[in-house]
Arylsulfatase A
Amino acid sequence: MHYCSLLFILAFVGLLPKNCSNSSLPNIILLFADDLGFGDLGCYGHPSSKTPNLDKLAAHGLRFTDFYSTSPVCSPSRASLLTGRYQTRSGIYPGVFYPGSKGGLPLNETTIAEVLKPLGYTTAIVGKWHLGLGPNRTFLPIHQGFDHFLGVPYSHDQGPCQNLTCFPPDIKCYGKCDQGVVYLPLFLNDTIKQQPVHFPDLVAFYNKFATEFISTSLKREQPFFLYYASHHTHYPQFAGEGATGKSLRGPFGDALLEFDQTVGALMTALEVNGAQNNTFVFFTSDNGPELMRMSRGGNSGLLKCGKGTTYEGGMREPAIAHWPGKIQAGVTHELGSTLDLLPTIAGLVQAKLPKVQLDGYDMRDILFKHRKSRREVMFYYPTDPSENLGVFAVRLRKYKAHYYTRGASHSDTTPDQACHLNAFLTRHDPPLLFDLESDPSENYSLGPSHPDYKDVLQEIQARKEEFEKTMVFGESQIGMGSDPELQPCCNPQCIPKPSCCACINECL
């Protein structure tokens, strides 16, 4: 056996409790894409995306048309996904974490992994964390309920990339990415195994680790939770030999294809081990596409704007639930959110919910009975939420009211000027009101002549006030600032930093 494979197996086999077997509990795989737009998948209407495995999940599972993240950028949306709480409660604002950030997801927040651990689950995250490192790497996933972590601590553009290879044989990454910080590191648990990451081989390592985690857990008859947080399709796009040049969409399409191939590999691992009928799989994305990258930045379909904005394109995401024999194939137009995954998963396995204010709802009625959603309202926070301004927009059933609108650099270059950075913060009194069923593109604001106008705005305002009374902003973790000494370095005594932080472990 190759030394790497042995290392990876030992990394999690040694941590699995030997007396916690409960094979009656379902396995759980949570697939999280990065900067993927509502219109990027074949099953959501893109004419040239090559996503056969995700399309198959959708064909045999439940596809959502009205599913939301809680933020148009990634650190806060990832916090909400894992905790079932708006990012404002946990302090994951404004913006995102950086390599030297002092803060992170507070350890007193309860993640999905921590909900499952008391029931004997073994837990792993593969891919992108982006919820902080902090002093002594305090905030890494292994301190947040995850037994195993193979991946990167933040976005893969948060480090120099101009001389790195993104596609084989030696196609350099597009752009320069962030300068003046360390190269992107690859972690195994809390140890750096490679710096900088070699992108063409990265997903092969991820897939090997993830599939071995699945097979080993099943052989031990231990239920597992796998959180596969892909880097794809965030800028700069990358892919290995099996996907490069194989799509019709260029670099973005190749990156998306490689993610789709990962989905196929994970589903095959379930089938080979006879676990496909006892595994709940859920797929979605962290936020909308980075339209400023043009053809390299994804597509929000018919939705307005993209990443960085509180328009639909920034926070409405593709989502698919799959469980053969349990979830009937179809499409649901019911409201759902990443906030709802923690209470839903807890309900599936009869786990105890955290004793905190949760913002999610159990979605089992939608998933297994195709009934109405318990969620009627979705609140839209900007990238820099504040108690002074409150939420920027509110969706109530099919209607959406914008109290504030603003463009973003992430959504520059589109023909719609409202998406651009120079579309400055604008307060709307009365709010702009849209019917998202007849106008999902948010083109035609309803006026006082609409028969529902007055009653809907009154109810939205009441829901907004009720929600904001319960919202207690946690201390801003990102506002704690940065310290260059906290940047992860595989050779911490080297000079001059950050450029000297480069090494390749013999295993990789």
